[in-house]
Amino acid sequence: MNAGKMGRLGTALALTAGVLALSPPGVPAPIVGAAPNDIIAVVVDGTGYGHGRGMSQWGAYGYAVDHGWDWNQILSHYYGGTESSTVPSGQRIRVRLTGLDGAGTVGVVSYGSPINWNGFTRTSMYAEETSTPGEFNVYGSTELSCPGQSVLVVPSGSPGIAKDSPDSDAVTQIQTFLKRYQSPAIAIDGDFGNQTRGFLIDWQNAQNLTVDGIWDPEDAAQAQAIIDADSGGDFGLLGTATTGTNDPLSFTIANGDTSSVAPNQTIGLCARDRTITHYRGSIDVLSTWSGNRVVNDVKVEDYLRGVLPKEISASWANAGGGAGANAVRAQAVAARSYGLRQARSYLLRQLVGALRNYLRHHVLSGLRRSSSPVNCIRRVHIDRARPHRCRCGSDGQCRAPMAERALQEWTNRFDRILRIKRSTYCGRRIPTRRRHRR
């Protein structure tokens, strides 16, 4: 909105206010019409959701379908000053599954090719951390099962639950049960439609129950018996693995990198509640300086197949006589670039963490009294961090609180260069370079 229009708008409002103020009581105020070019309202019409950064999916759709832009123009509009580049077709990405951060037990199952670890193949496996951090015992079973006791809940079936039931919570419980014990293909959405009814009929038939597609007390009793009997499968110890940032424990399947394999035939990862989510690629378990991590190692293009449908609708590609495909392609490039960028940042964080861990365990823990007659103590000096003398506790171990604090600060600044040197001092601070501000 330019200054001239703002001025006219302000004048119109002022005149209207003046007329209202000067009108005698009880006399209707005259209606003042706006000039043809005056702005009398500002309407902001938003579409969809977003965080206000990067590319707007709906904006990309509009530029592609309504304005005829190609995907390069869309990307140039939202990411000005960047350059296009390529990555190998087999490029991989490691995706941290934050819902399992810190997990001490990680289980996987397969409805297709068996799980493989260290030459062993089983239908189900799980890794359980021992009392030694980073060390895991790996167990396997020929049964399809997640580790631990099942905690699923099913509705009582009284009254019966049938197609088009409005009780979405009960339907969700039924779908979750059927997904776990009948077929991973069922969608959990709380909607009792033809799909849910079909899977329920299949389960009823397999359990020799009344086949009617209605969840009743008979079905509920049988389901509860299955849940109670599920003690986590007959798992046996396969071996022990020690993991690290660059040496994960990896669960794979023979066709995990085959892009054409059906989603429910890929590796199934057990959540804490024993529900299963399927992933292409492999599932890695590793110990890091900040705790255990579960990572999906997958090809970038397979990663995109899982990401894009959750960000935009695939039907957009057909919009505008096919022009919408440019919006989809632009989103694919943005998502691919973001994923690869995050992957590099993750590796850098892991490198920083590994170095930090080394410093803490091999440098700070090595602070000790010197054997010299003047009873000096060794300490760590971090460049540009103001040094403070170490304190020796009653147990003879040195304490370096400022060094620890400096290490923590440096960990959060990935672009800083860490310089370490060991010095000896006797009851006084070591001279160091001061930071000068220009």
In short:
It contains nine helices and 16 strands.
Describe it for me?
The chain is an alpha+beta fold and 438 residues long. The chain is built from 9 helices and 16 strands. The chain has a 6-stranded antiparallel beta sheet with strand order 7-6-5-2-9-10, with no helix packed on it. The protein has a 4-stranded antiparallel beta sheet with strand order 1-12-11-8. Strands 3-4 form a two-stranded antiparallel ribbon. Helix 3 packs across helix 8. It is globular. It starts with a helix and ends in a 13-residue tail after the last strand.
Chart the SSEs and their pairings.
Layout: H1 3-22, H2 57-65, H3 71-78, E1 92-96, E2 105-110, E3 115-117, E4 120-122, E5 124-129, E6 135-141, H4 168-181, H5 194-206, H6 217-229, E7 236-242, E8 249-251, E9 267-270, E10 276-279, E11 282-288, E12 291-299, H7 300-311, H8 325-363, E13 377-382, E14 391-392, E15 398-399, H9 401-411, E16 420-425
Antiparallel strand pairs: 1-12, 2-5, 2-9, 3-4, 5-6, 6-7, 8-11, 9-10, 11-12, 13-16, 14-15
Characteristics of this structure?
438 residues, 9 helices, alpha+beta
The main pleated sheet reads as:
6 strands, antiparallel
- The Rg value, from CA coordinates, equals 32 Å
Shape: globular
**Uncertain runs:** 1-23, 363-403, 413-438
Q: Per DSSP, what share of the residues sits in E-state strands of 2 or more residues?
A: 15-25%
The ordered string of helix (H) and strand (E) elements is HHHEEEEEEHHHEEEEEEHHEEEHE
Helix fraction, binned, reads 25-40%
Number of strands: 16
Count, helices:
9
Structural class: alpha+beta
Termini distance? Answer: 42 Å
Q: Which sequence of strands runs across the widest sheet?
A: 7-6-5-2-9-10
Q: Give the overall average pLDDT.
A: 75
